[in-house]
């Protein structure tokens, strides 16, 4: 019987592990559990939210990328580590059990939600394709409604947008969406463009502290030159349908609070019988879970020792690490099948790129500070290179070329009309089961519900 390898998550980490294992473990039966049939290229989400890219341009088809991996369309909601079974909620809603000999966990992260009154109800995320699409429609709808409102207070409230978080996700989201709202506002006769206000609220004293003071300041200059308010050293203490309250006492009338203040590892990690570090699953430098050599974890969901930095550091949750860790993970899974020694993950970070929309960006490739047009060139070239799928690269390049001439697409698509917009609804954070619940749920499933073709 061939060995059964199950990969959970089809993002940067999981899809690459499966793709590499197809070659490295030719006799193994590989299954990839993922709720979506695409790999989402998250760094492009702010451009999707702003209408500079269509949603389909930010994804790579898994069925096209993977040749013999069987896709299991669903979400892993629990794992019975002792019985080596993954409990999956299929996209049909039915539970399924997927047994494994080797398990690779790469379910990524979700938006980090803090205990702030109103945040769960009124905070909007930008972590999934659905959230980006929702955000775009929501922002465009605010301007449309403001244009027809006779109430000046309502007009002002709908035209103010608050982004919480001055990391790369928040900065890119604010920078790109502000460009779009400035285009749209000029088309509406009853909206004074000066009424459209964007705020970036950042708890730290600088933007994107990981990129250093100089690039943080360059970013701030670009944002402020577009009229975006950058509020540093300030947090949000409450939010409701009408107002965001800041820690300095200000009350900003707004219908839109975009919450990008960090990520939390997938809740699945905290539901296993295994140690976690700040929610990330603890693994060794060989990416295996201590006590469970048959289970490996990587990407945003795992606390992978950062041997290049040393001193007990763990790797930052970046796409760069996730993709590099995939190489080591696939090699180690394949090695374990043939009794070969495994290797340690070691990678020195190559830097970050941050798209600020238009011809503006900041980047730090190999430790060199870049801003303006050179950074924009590096940023776009890096994204195209990192997508590594010719059809996806062509789609993004064509959309950028069109966007440079036409500007962003500013139509509301309306697919998500009726969605609550709540983080938990879009990111399914309430779906997970603890080990006891997982065992009970697995025991309750009739044998016939295991996925077709899974050798039990
Ligand atoms: C707006 C934004 C911009 C970013 N920009 C950059 C950047 O410029 N550079 C950079 O290096 N990093 C960037 N990042 C971070 C980067 O995207 C992540 O570090 C990277 O995606 C992590 O890869 P991953 O495979 O661990 O997780 P993901 O890419 O998030 O993939 C997780 C996968 O698991 C699936 N999944 C989730 N839960 C389950 C489950 N229970 N069962 C099965 N499947 C599941 C998801 O659907 C997804 O397919 C950005 C992030 C955001 C949000």
Automatic annotation (TrEMBL):
<keyword id="KW-0520">NAD</keyword>
<dbReference type="InterPro" id="IPR036188">
    <property type="entry name" value="FAD/NAD-bd_sf"/>
</dbReference>
<protein>
    <submittedName>
        <fullName>NADH dehydrogenase</fullName>
    </submittedName>
</protein>
<dbReference type="GO" id="GO:0003954">
    <property type="term" value="F:NADH dehydrogenase activity"/>
</dbReference>
<keyword id="KW-0560">Oxidoreductase</keyword>
<dbReference type="InterPro" id="IPR023753">
    <property type="entry name" value="FAD/NAD-binding_dom"/>
</dbReference>
<feature type="domain" description="FAD/NAD(P)-binding">
    <location>
        <begin position="4"/>
        <end position="309"/>
    </location>
</feature>
<comment type="similarity">
    <text>Belongs to the NADH dehydrogenase family.</text>
</comment>
<keyword id="KW-0274">FAD</keyword>
<dbReference type="InterPro" id="IPR045024">
    <property type="entry name" value="NDH-2"/>
</dbReference>
<keyword id="KW-0285">Flavoprotein</keyword>
<dbReference type="Pfam" id="PF07992">
    <property type="entry name" value="Pyr_redox_2"/>
</dbReference>
